Amino acid sequence: xxxxxxxxxSLEKGFGFISNDEGEDxxxxxxxxxxxxxxxxxxxxxxxxxxxxxRGPQALSVSIVEAPPTISTGSRGKNDDxxxxxxxTIKILDRYGNGLRSGRTSTAxxxxxxAKVLRGIASQIDGN
Length: 128
Hints:
Blueprint lengths: L2 E8 L4 E6 L4 E5 L15 E9 L2 E11 L8 H27 L6 H20 L1
Antiparallel strand pairs: 1-2, 1-4, 2-3, 4-5
Helix pairs in contact: 1-2
């Protein structure tokens, strides 16, 4: 299986990109992340399979090989990451709620994405 490192990932947008070992950008959808993982940090080493998507190579069946090194092992960095995840989640929930208020129905994919993000946040909070 190919490996690569996360270039960037946006919890709010629900996607990001991996730079594979050949230097090629690979699209990473939130749905491809392992169960219970809502987001990944830049530099995280991933193993994945690749499929040709509409916009080029897309990562599937992603597994985390190695988390990026942290400067300290204290809780400050983890708390900052969790705070950023919660802020992104609030934006997602606002958008979702506003859509419901204006009569738009959500798709199953929207519901699955939101549920995955909320489960990821809950698991981070439980781990504190």
